[in-house]
Amino acid sequence: MKVAVCVKQIPDPASDYSLDPDTHFLVRPNEQVLDDTDRYGVEVALQIADANEGSVTLVSMGPSGNLQGIRQALAMGADEAVLVDDDSLKGADSLTTAKVLAAAIGRGDYDLVIAGTESTDGYSGVVPQQVAAFLELPALTYATQIDVDGSTVSIRRQTAVGYDEVSASAPALVSVTAGVVEPRYPTFKGIMDAKKKPVETLTAADLDVEVTVGQAIASVEDAPAREAGEKVVDEGEAHLRIVAALEQAKVV
Amino acid sequence: MSMLVFIEEANGAPATVGLEILTKVRGQGDVAVAYAGPGGDAVWAALGAHGATSVHHIATPEDGLSHAAVATAVAGLVEDIDVVLVGATYDGRDVAGALSAFTGRSVLTNATDLSFDGGLTVTNEVFGGTKLVHSTLSGPGIVLIRPKSFPAEPGDGGSPTVSTVELPDIGHAGSGSITGRHAEQAEGPKLEEAAVVVSGGRGLGDAENFALVEELAGLLGGATGATRAIVDAGWVPYAKQVGQTGKTVKPDVYIALGISGAMQHLVGMKDAKTIIAVNKDEEAPIFSVADLGVVGDVHQVVPKLIEALKAR
Lengths: 252, 312
Description:
The structure holds two protein chains of two kinds. Chain A is α/β, with parallel strands linked by helices.
């Protein structure tokens, strides 16, 4: 079973994010990390490939930088990576991103496409569904559990009240929530091997994708800040202050 | 500007976020609704009261995973529509994503406000709600709107016209099926609607201590919530997650126990009327939004609080 998994390199979430004052695009340093939510997708892909004599290809779009994030995913055990890096894609919206990812995935003959539900830096949360639509695949979304039996893919799909059991035949796309599996940590051998694994870099033109611009940021402003209230250090009686606050809010 | 609002059915009624959107756009000319679900006279009346002037009813099968098929049906309705507005629910996101690909429309996501002065401007919050980004569409587009961005209030709108749209057969892309449905959250008020929400984070130490959160919520007649960290850790189900990737809540009182206040969490709760936080790290970002911040150990403070409330 050939599995493609969408991954993204993002600025370290522990660092302060900023927007370029001219373009309003997120400032991306040369060293970016693998989006933590993608570790779940990579792990799912690896487990399915392991159980079904398969392979795992990473598919990504964005500035290559020093490839640290991609190497992190390769170190977990993925076989190879395809990265679309093109200046014309800077600030691309979810539609263009999905078009690019779908075109890159469409070059291979994959049985399964895995993606996280949304990236930690962009949060658009619609790219998996767009990719599935471009590839004309059923989209099994928000998976909290996934099983592959032959060509049948079954998931538990997160809903507002619980979950649905959903299934479709491969080829299909599955978007996974964090927590679907416990991602493995790369071994030392994995980290060493990752340096030698193939990373193919493509441009939008290589994929014959037309870059469209459907939205623009007009302005950015600071949100009105909520003022911090009172801070008390507990010396054994702070719970009484909470009771008083609850009384004031008229909920007790 | 012509608008169409996509609304799906939830528990026999229009999804609340759909009524919130209708309330917001009421008065901006004709508003069409594409409605997916069984529907019925009560549903049409509710849509009309909230501002829909026409309804395209897309009947969906119980057991079909039909987001892409629904999106195909909606695509056939929006040729003359400038903006398609969709609530950012699970189903809404699936339909909006597929619709975007099928129609080539750009999607503005995570919208928390809309302005119609001189064309549509869409606002969303980034960096944990510390920055507001105002965006415009350069052509026909889709806007995904976060629940609770606007109140849902019926107006004096009359009955909308209702027409039926067939769900198309789109082959393999529409071939998924739903084989079972499960509800997890049965007791107490719903997280999104509760007047009091008590949430727990990593600072609770381990999964068993979530019982403190449950007991306090029970005493206050509130709902329990959680951070992404403890949901990912498997302590509580995803349905309880509050934050950017979880639910948005705006209760009268939000009590954060052992929650540091990551940006991803703050986005989901910072608009609570009163925020009370207990955390032992006095530098925790949660204190920057808390009306009352207690620097202390949740394992000391919360049991005493529970006793004090019980003694009342």
